[in-house]
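Entry for the shared binder. Reason: the reviewer on the internal report wants the predicted structure included alongside the sequence.
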Amino acid sequence: MKNLLLFILLIGFTFSINAQEDTSSADYSKWQARFRVISVIPSPGDDISGADVDISTAFVPELDFTYFFTKNIAAELILATTKHDVELENGADLGHVWLLPPTLNLQYHFYAGDFKPYVGAGVNYTFFYGEDEGDVAGMDYENTFGFSLQAGIDYNLTDKWFLNFDIKKLFLSTDVDVDTGEGVLPVEVDINPLVIGLGVGMKF
């Protein structure tokens, strides 16, 4: 997946070098919105007593809004919520939890005809809610900040509509209090999801 991010990044810089048109003075839409279907693939660590933690992949819709400060520089707010099942490698069920991680990325957009690659980086604040305790007495996840990297490409269908492919990496860890029934076990759980999305967008 790291190679995919680097590949999209390389495409963007190649297009920016080869593009012949002057985009600094051209007209552009200040706002655009996208609707994507995303796959959220966590990359958990083994922070619970040396055990391997398994966090399920989720497929959900995502909505984002982008505002362009200039032709090339924009800010994107990403909104989606996902449900993940959590268990240990030994089969112990740690229930499930819902994540709401609004993410704000600062982006740089490149232009080459109908293609518009972009790269971005930013922050997110993840809310955990709807916890289910599974085989333990209780699970309490702490809301937390994280960081994100992003790369993607838009392809214009018309002056208003476009297709989008997007990939993001969120660097996200949270402190969890696991109530075993015999006491509370504080642990740090890495989530670090890879988010891959495909969708359609509109300029306005």
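Summary line for the report: The first helix runs from residue 2 to 18.
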